[in-house]
């Protein structure tokens, strides 16, 4: 739960710390704005994806389901700067599928926290495994980290790609290839 008052105090201190005048017109509402923004961008801390993924439907056909190009925005926990990109999620059902939008909701729940990309990838895969007990899961995230592009090493255009494979996707190279070619198209 975001403590709005604490965040406001912290932002006031930060602005003082960088030598700004917290009372000037453009900045006086900034602590309140950022506290409200934190409720949004860190809102995933109060949530689990399980409640979303509980929306399920029976299926006869246990072929791969892939939801690709799910745009996400998260915050790098080392610098509190955004990293953002696309998530691609596939699973092989085991008699049940979840609502398509629930895959994107799952991404949002775990993206809206201070994160590292590797953990975000694992948490999405874990949630799918817990909820659906699928025959396989594969998650790939492609993202640009602003802590790498606008500061520090400053490498604009560099991309970080992370993957997690579980079950059939771990053992079956052909399935992995199929995932990769479907993601690329
Ligand atoms: N593995 C991983 N590293 C990340 C992620 N986001 C940021 N980082 C890295 O976290 C590291 C933090 O390194 P530090 O040396 O403690 O911090 P720093 O002095 O600001 O480092 P530089 O970014 O190299 O200037 C950096 O190498 C970042 O690139 C992420 O999602 N996953
Ligand atoms: Zn960072």
From TrEMBL:
Pfam families: GTP_cyclohydroI (PF01227). Zn(2+) binds at residues 76, 79, 147. InterPro entries: GTP-CH-I_C/QueF, GTP-CH-I_N, GTP_CycHdrlase_I, GTP_CycHdrlase_I_CS, GTP_CycHdrlase_I_dom. GO terms for biological process: one-carbon metabolic process; tetrahydrobiopterin biosynthetic process; tetrahydrofolate biosynthetic process. Transmembrane segments: none annotated. Pathway: Cofactor biosynthesis; 7,8-dihydroneopterin triphosphate biosynthesis; 7,8-dihydroneopterin triphosphate from GTP: step 1/1. It catalyses: GTP + H2O = 7,8-dihydroneopterin 3'-triphosphate + formate + H(+). SUPFAM superfamilies: Tetrahydrobiopterin biosynthesis enzymes-like. One of its GO terms (molecular function) is GTP binding. It is an enzyme of class 3 (hydrolase). Its EC number is 3.5.4.16. HAMAP family: FolE. Belongs to the GTP cyclohydrolase I family. Homopolymer. This is GTP cyclohydrolase 1. The gene is folE.
């Amino acid at each position: 739960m975001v403590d709005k008052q604490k965040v406001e105090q912290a932002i006031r201190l930060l602005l003082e710390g960088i030598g700004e005048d917290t009372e000037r017109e453009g900045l006086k509402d900034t602590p309140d704005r950022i506290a409200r923004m934190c409720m949004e961008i860190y809102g995933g801390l109060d949530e689990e994806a399980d409640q979303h993924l509980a929306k399920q439907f029976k299926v006869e056909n246990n072929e791969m389901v892939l939801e690709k190009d799910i745009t996400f925005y998260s915050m790098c926990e080392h610098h509190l700067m955004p990293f953002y990109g696309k998530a691609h999620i596939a699973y092989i059902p085991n008699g049940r599928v979840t609502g398509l939008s629930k895959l994107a909701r799952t991404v949002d729940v775990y993206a809206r926290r201070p994160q590292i990309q590797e953990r975000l990838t694992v948490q999405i895969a874990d949630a799918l495994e817990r909820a659906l007990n699928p025959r396989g899961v594969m998650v790939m995230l492609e993202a640009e980290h602003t802590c790498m592009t606008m500061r520090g090493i400053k490498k604009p255009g560099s991309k970080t790609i992370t993957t997690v494979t579980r079950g059939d996707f771990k053992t079956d190279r052909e399935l992995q290839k199929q995932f990769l070619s479907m993601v690329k198209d």
